Amino acid sequence: MPERIEIEKKVLSENDRTAATIRANLKKRGIASINLVSSPGSGKTSLLERSLTTLNKELSIAVIAGDVQTDNDARRLEAAGGTIVRPIVTGGACHLDARMVAKSLESIDLDPVKLLVIENVGNLVCPSSYDLGEDMKVVLISTTEGDDKPLKYPAMFRKASVMVVNKIDLLGSSDFMLSRVKENALNINGALKIFELSCRSGEGLNTWYSWLRELAGTRPQTKSTKPILI
Ligand code: MG
Ligand code: ZN
Q1: Cα of 6 to ligand 2 centre, how many Å?
Q2: Which of 3, 67, 179, 194 lies at a 20 to 30 A Cα distance from 75?
Q3: Are strands 84-89 and 32-38 parallel, antiparallel or unpaired?
Q4: Alpha carbon separation from 160 to 23, 110, 150, 155 (Å, rounded)
């Protein structure tokens, strides 16, 4: 049977269809996008605060910040220099889905935006199953967690393109070993790109910023005045 028919026969779930529409719209506009995932307390918001302070003027970063109950993180991100920050309070749901992201995007003027960051709800389990239309998932882990996290949550590390190890200023104060977390992660997904940094001391952040700049500049910017249609 021709492959095309097989593909046509494949039924996409509602979430995947919405995600595909988001992805196509972002691509058309030349906007790079990441879906930032981690356990609670690994430092997603801290990494975004640093990134916004340094890069927002350059990249006009749109941030969609998911949280279960409060919009505290969104307010922190605005205080750090974020100019396009949209909270999504899920009211109990432990992940974001594509419909929530599509709705949030409708409220954003995307014309100046070069980079979209979706801060997912702190959870390494179900966010791995929800495509939000992003270019890639970035999984964050901190040195205050177990270095066996990739082994415990393999689906997330398999689906991620990038792993950021945060809080490297605290290395040595626990049993966490950098070499072991990298080995564990690469055993699950040998293609993972890895960053090691500390949002507190600033170590390693310049390499992260360079990568974000490169990511945001990888596609030609095409302007459109049409609203995103989902
Ligand atoms: Mg947060
Ligand atoms: Zn969930």
Answers
A1: 30
A2: 194
A3: unpaired
A4: 16, 25, 11, 9
Question: Is the CATH code 3.30.360.10 the one for domain 2-216?
Answer: no
> How far, in Å, CA of 47 to CA of 92, rounded?
24
| Ligand approaching nearest to the C-alpha of 90 | 2
Q: By C-alpha distance, which of 132, 157, 163 is closest to 65?
A: 132
Q: Is the pLDDT of residue 7 over 50?
A: no
Residue 194 to residue 209: CA distance in whole angstroms: 13
Gap between the Cα atoms of 149 and 181, Å rounded: 8
Q: How far is the CA of 43 from the centre of ligand 1 (A)?
A: 7
pLDDT at 44: 96
Whole-angstrom CA distances from 104 to 112, 120, 132 are: 16, 13, 12
CA of 68 to the centre of ligand 2 (A): 10
Q: What is the pLDDT of residue 13?
A: 87
Under the banding of pLDDT at 50, 70 and 90, the label for residue 9 is very low
DSSP string spanning 115-130? EEEEE--S-SSGGGG-
Give residue 201 CA to ligand 2 midpoint distance, Å.
32
Q: How far is the CA of 21 from the centre of ligand 2 (A)?
A: 22
CA angle in degrees (0–180, nearest 5) for 118-120-124: 140
